[in-house]
Amino acid sequence: MAGRLEGKVAFITGAARGQGRSHAVKMAQEGADIIAIDICRQVDTVPIPMSTPEDLEETVALVKATGRGIVAAQGDVRDFQALKDVVDEGVRQFGRLDIVVANAGLAADAAGMDVMDEKLWNDSIGVNLTGVWLTAKASMQHIIDGGRGGAMVLTSSVGGLKAHPGIGNYVSAKHGVVGVMRTLAVELAPHNIRVNSVHPSQVNTPMLMNEMTYRMFRPELENPTQTDMAVVSMGMHLLPTPWMEVSDISNAVLFLVSDEGRYITGVTLPIDGGAMLK
Ligand SMILES: NC(=O)c1ccc[n+]([C@@H]2O[C@H](COP(=O)([O-])OP(=O)(O)OC[C@H]3O[C@@H](n4cnc5c(N)ncnc54)[C@H](O)[C@@H]3O)[C@@H](O)[C@H]2O)c1
Fold it and tell me: What is the pLDDT of residue 2?
């Protein structure tokens, strides 16, 4: 079934690669024009390579290949003006805004709460929590002005519903996203704007597939590989898979923002192979 977002416009953060790119392409395939932002540079507390300008260019090309339009900019979700500039420009070009996916996130270095450096804490809270709120703040008036209702999806994590040791900065930020989501769901319901959060477990993106994560999953091994990580990752799920693919998250996001989800708001949706039950 194509065309589920025909004539709509979607704003997606963290769209240069991973889940954000997948959401952008999927929504464009379904008929939406896309407004995209990504930081496209390294944040110094993040020990894995972040996205590049070339990654964002590739997303732009993939969206254009579907026949839909895209307005894309490099910018940090902690920078309200950068968010506002790109969303305002997108609305100027496409004439409306219907959908927001606050997906940008980073995995600042891990540490126990007793020794965590404040910079690790602040970067995680700044991007993964404050950035989500600023994304909504920069865009919601455009949806309200359209008078047609709309939908937002905020990307949290299984780590936004239960704790994991050693990543309290990430877990705290992702729990905070639920508070942002619930508040927005209440505040925006009179405008028929629905707000939900998605909670993936492990997803096959660069955020997961790197040596730092392999070590986090297999600290007892000297040089853990993806295969070593997969064994432990599989054990965290009820269903027999070590991780989700980006399309699994995009399909859930699409459902939530499309008319099929028209009465769903305020929901925390795990896409986790049953990880919440373990
Ligand atoms: N990969 C997983 O296992 C997993 C699991 C649960 C939740 N998540 C969440 O899913 C979302 C997408 O992550 P992903 O898996 O696609 O990883 P990813 O690293 O491939 O993509 C994240 C994107 O966000 C961008 N970004 C980071 N900080 C930014 C900032 N300050 N401003 C703008 N853009 C910024 C990155 O440059 C990157 O392109 C994140 O919020 C992440 O926390 C990921």
Answer: 67
Least Cα distance to 127 among 163, 75, 84 occurs for 75
Distance 14 CA to ligand 1 centre (A): 6
Tally of CA atoms within 13 A in the half-sphere of 150 that contains its CB: 27
Question: What residues in the chain have per-residue pLDDT under 70?
Answer: 1-2
Distance 147 CA to ligand 1 centre (A): 31
Distance, CA 38 to ligand 1 centroid (Å)?
Answer: 10
Question: Dihedral (C-alpha) 51, 53, 56, 60: value to the nearest 10 degrees?
Answer: -170
C-alpha angle 185-189-194 in degrees, rounded to nearest 5: 60
- What distances in angstroms separate CA 131 from CA 49, 136, 241, 252, one per listed residue? 20, 9, 31, 22
User: Which residues does ligand 1 sit against, CB inside 6 Å?
Assistant: 13-14, 16-20, 37-39, 50-51, 76-78, 103-106, 127, 131, 155, 157, 200, 202-203, 205-208
Q: Which of 28, 191, 11, 32 is nearest to 89 (CA)?
A: 11
- At 110 the pLDDT is 87
Question: Token pair for residue 202?
Answer: 């492990």
Q: What is the pLDDT of residue 11?
A: 99
Collapsing DSSP to helix, strand or coil, 106 comes out as: coil
- Give every CB contact of residue 275 below 8 A, 6+ residues apart in sequence: 158, 201, 236, 237, 238
Radius of gyration of the chain (CA): 18
